[in-house]
Fold this protein.
Amino acid sequence: MSAIPRSGIRDFFDIVQSMKDVISLGVGEPDFVTPWHIREAAIYALERGKTGYTSNLGLLTLREAIAISVHKHFNVAYDPVREILIGVGVSETMDLAFRAIIDRGDEIIYHEPCYVSYSPGIALAHGVPVAVSCRPENAFSVTAAAVEKAVTPKTKAVVLNFPTNPTGGTMSRAELEKIATVVKRHNLLVITDEIYSELTFEGEHVSIASLPGMKERTIFLHGFSKAYAMTGFRIGYACGPAAVIDAMMRIHQYSMLCASIISQEAALEAIQHGEADTVEMREQYRMRRNFIVSAFNEMGLPCHLPRGSFYAFPCIQSTGLNSKDFARRLLEAEKVACVPGSAFGPTGEGYLRCCFATALDRIEVAMERMSRFVKQVRAQ
Ligand SMILES: Cc1ncc(COP(=O)(O)O)c(C=O)c1O
C-alpha cells in the first residue's frame, strides 16, 4: 500500500469542500438529481419491503433488462443467467475483473491520461500497469500501433475507456478493429469501461465487444452513475464469458455479497424507462460543452472538442504553470475548482480537467473568472 498514492482528485476536493462560494468543475458527477421516476422506484421498493439480499449475480429481472439493453445499444448478446454480474458501480466490477484475470506479474496495458483507478487497481491485484499515451493530435484516441508496441510476452489484457475520462476521447470503428486484430494476434483479453457511452455527442459509439471474435475475450463494463445521474445508487455491471463472470462472482460473493436491492430496483426502472432522461441530459451537456470549449480557446487555452463524456481538457502549458500550481492558484485567486491533469497520469501534465456537468450559468461565471486569472498570470 505504501507504493499506492492517494487519489489526486479526492485530496484536492477535500480542500474545496472546506472553502465557501467555490464553483466546482471538479468531481465527475452529474449535477442533475436522479430522475424522479427512478427515485420513486427506489421508494416503492422500500414500501414493498424489498430490503433483503439478492442473488450474488444481482436480480435476474435486472440482468434480463441489461441483456436486452446491451444487445440493443451495443449489438452484443449476453446470457443474463451466466454472462452478467451486477456489482457496486463500475468501480467494483473493474476491481473484480482485475482480481479475476491477473496473475502476479501480468502486464496490463491501459491508455493515459486515464481514470484514476486503473493503475492502482492493477497494482492491487499484483499486476504491472503499462501506460500507452494518447495525444491531442489524435483527439486523445489510442492507436493500435501504440498498443502493439507495448505488448510483451507478459501482457495479459488491455483496458479501454471510450469516451475517455478525462479527455473526452472517442474511437472510430476502424481503429477499434485494428486494436481487435492486435488483441487477437497476441491472445489477450480486453476490459472495456464504457460508462460514458450514452454521452457520445458525435459519431457512433462502437463497443469492441461487438467486433468479430471479441465477445469471448472481452469483459464489458457499464453502469448507471453517469447516464442516469445515479452515482449514489452504486450500480454497475459486467458482461463477459461465463467462466470469467463466474470467477468475478466468487470474489464478489465473498467480499460484497450483492449490490443493494433498493438500488437494483431503481436501476431496473432506469434501464427500462429512463432513455428519454438520458437523451435530455446529453443535450444539456452538449450545449455546455460547446460553450466551455469555445471559452477556453478564446482565452488562449487550446482545447480540443471532446466527442464524448462530460469533461473538457484544455492545455494550460502557455501559462508557464504546471497543472497542480495552475489549479491551486486558480482556486485561491478565483474560487474555481478544476482537477490538475497530472492526477490522470504523467501524460496529463500541462492540462486541466474541467467537468461541464454543472449548470450553464455557473460555467459562464467560472469562465469569466478563469479568463481573468489567465490574463493575470500572463501579465506577471
Ligand atoms: C471511466 C470511469 N470508470 C468508472 C467510474 C466509476 O463509476 P461508478 O460510479 O459506476 O463506480 C468512473 C467515475 O468517475 C469513471 O470516470
The mean pLDDT is 95. DSSP finds twelve helices and twelve strands in the chain. The pocket of pyridoxal-5'-phosphate is lined by residues 28, 89-91, 115, 161, 165, 193, 195, 223, 225, 231, 236 (CB under 6 Å).
